[in-house]
Design brief:
Elements (H helix, E strand, L loop, with lengths): L9 H8 L7 H30 L8 H38 L8 H6 L10 H13 L15 H15 L3 H35 L3
Helix pairs in contact: 2-3, 2-7, 5-7, 6-7
């Protein structure tokens, strides 16, 4: 038994002050690690593909280089798939925290988590969701503040859409042009994710 029954951990203190609110720190670290590995493998695969073209095309690839490219793509698939549950859970929990903290978010937590996976709507909903999370989590704003995109969030979404669309094209040119856009957009996304996590942590430390 704890020798000091009045001692509370930071997590216990947050739960006492704001029932229903939970820290995003661990989820954010998991998502950052997995997506960071995914983007790293994307960059490495791009280097290998450029090298393959430089030495004579796909048909004449040395076995070692062909294996390296295959392993990169396998790693991208595995780390990307592994990130999806934690990623969706982060969005759900971030929106749930705003509700628990008494702050307004037009989208429900479930919509925040599913916005990325609904065809057609995922061309716009994820951007709206991130703007709402960022505004709602900012301690400087009131609970009913109109969602305002922070600097760089519009650029993130444009790069994400452009990279995804270009990368869907077949052939080397589509891959060469689309992959860097996807990676840059991913880095910006992780930056905004970290900002939201940090701001919510600050909100949870404040007395209700």
């Amino acid at each position: 038994m704890d020798s000091n029954p009045y001692a509370h951990s930071e997590v216990d203190d947050i739960a006492r002050r704001h029932p229903g609110a939970r820290s995003l720190d661990q989820l954010q670290l998991v998502v950052t690690a997995l997506l960071g590995l995914t983007y790293g493998m994307m960059v490495l695969s791009l280097v290998f593909v450029v090298l393959a073209v430089a030495i004579g095309g796909e048909g004449d690839l040395p076995p070692t280089l062909a294996l390296a490219i295959a392993l990169c793509w396998l790693s991208i698939a595995l780390t990307g798939l592994a990130a999806i549950p934690a990623w969706a859970m982060w969005h759900y929990r971030a929106a749930s925290n705003l509700v628990a903290l008494g702050r307004t978010t037009p989208m429900t937590p479930a919509v925040h988590a599913l916005a990325w996976f609904v065809p057609i709507l995922n061309l716009w909903w994820p951007y709206q969701a991130m703007v709402q999370l960022h505004t709602g989590s900012n301690p400087r704003y009131t609970s009913d503040a109109i969602p305002i995109a922070p600097n760089g969030m519009g650029l993130w979404w444009v790069l994400h859409l452009m990279g995804s669309l270009v990368n869907c094209g077949t052939g080397f040119v589509g891959f060469l042009l689309g992959m860097p856009l996807v990676v840059i957009a991913g880095i910006l996304y992780l930056r905004f994710m970290r900002q939201i996590t940090t701001m919510q942590h600050t909100l949870m430390q404040q007395s209700p």
